[in-house]
Amino acid sequence: MSDTEKFPLLDPAMQKAAVKVKTKKLNKKKKKKKKKQKLMSKRKHQEKADAKDLASLRQCLGPGCVYPTRPGSKYCSDDCGMKLAADRIYAILPQRIQQWQKSPCIAEERGKKMLERIHQEQQDTRTRLKDMECHFYELEAIILRGKQQPVCKDEEINKSNRNNANLQIFCVSCGQSINMHVALRHMEHCFVKYEGKSSFGSMYPTCIEGATRLFCDVYNPKSKRYCKRLQVLCPEHSRDPKASDDEVCGCPLVHNVFEFTGNFCRLPKRVCNLHYCWEKLRRAEVDLERIRTLNKLEELLEQEHKVRTAMTNRAGLLALMLHQTVQHDPLTTDLRSKADS
C-alpha cells in the first residue's frame, strides 16, 4: 500500500503532511542506529588496543615497585629511577674504592710530578717578571739621565755627517735605495705607514694587576674594539713629539755591543740619525719581553688547571663506577710493567 492509501479519510493536503512526519521519524531512527553502530565499533577497537598495550607494558624496575612502566621508559616515575641508581651506587661504590686504594695509581704519581714542575716554572717566571719590571724602571732612569746631558758643539755634528755622506742602503720595507745618513728615519716612517694599515683589536680592555704601559687600549667606536698594539709603538694613537733644537739625544753609548761605557750621545736629537727613536725602541723591547713573560705565566696556570681537573675527575664517582682495574694476582700490588716501572 502507498502512503496515501494508509490515510483514505484525510484530505490530500493532510495526507502529505502525515507522510512527511512519518519519513522524518524513519530518518531519525536510521541516524540513531548508525550512531550506535559507530560507538560499538569504537569501543571494540579501544578494547583491542588496551589489551595490546597491557600486553606490551612491563613492570617498573624500581625497588619494590609493582606499577607498569611509562611509554618509552623502564620506570613508572623519576623517583623509581633515582632510587634504583642510589641502591646501585651504595652496592658498587665501596668495593670500587677499596680496589682503587689497594693498587697505586701511576697517573696520579705523574700528575703530582707535573704539578711540581709547573710550580717551579711558575716561580721562575714570576722572578723573571719582577726582573723585567726592575729593568723597566732602570730604563726610565737612564732615559731621564740622558736628557740631562749638555748638547755638543756644531763641529762634532759636521764630522759625524761627513763619515756617512756617500754610503747607500736599501729600505727593508719599500726596497728603495736611500742614504745611510737618513736610513733609520726613512725605515721608521715606512714601518709606521705599513703598520697603520693593519689593526689589532679586542672586545675587552687589558686588566693586568701591577703592570704599566703595555697595550694601547684606545677604544674605537666604529669597530667597537680596543687597540692591542704596544702603547709605545702604536702609530695610530701615540705619535712622537717633535724634538726641539736644545733637546739632546741622550742615547747611552756601548762598547762591544753590550758593555755600557757610562757616556751618552750629546748630539741634538733633531740632528742625530744614528740613534733615531732609541727611547721608543728600547721601551718596546722591554714591554714585549714583559708581555711574553705574562703569556708564559698564563699558559702555566692553564696547564695547572688541566692537571688538577684530571686528578680530581680520576677518582670521582663517575670514573669509579664506569672503570675498574682487574687484579688477577692478589700478591702483586704494583700492576705496572717493567718498562713503566
UniProtKB/TrEMBL annotation:
One of its GO terms (biological process) is positive regulation of DNA-templated transcription. PANTHER family: CXXC-TYPE ZINC FINGER PROTEIN 1 (PTHR46174:SF1). Residues 18-50 are annotated as: Disordered. It comes from the Eukaryota. This is CXXC-type zinc finger protein 1. The lineage of its organism: Eukaryota, Metazoa, Chordata, Craniata, Vertebrata. It is found in: Nucleus. The gene is LOC106989614. Keywords: DNA-binding, Metal-binding, Nucleus, Transcription, Transcription regulation, Zinc, Zinc-finger. It comes from Acinonyx jubatus (Cheetah). GO terms for cellular component: Set1C/COMPASS complex. Residues 85-321 form the CpG binding protein C-terminal domain. Residues 19-46 have a biased composition (Basic residues). Its main location: nucleus. One of its GO terms (molecular function) is zinc ion binding.
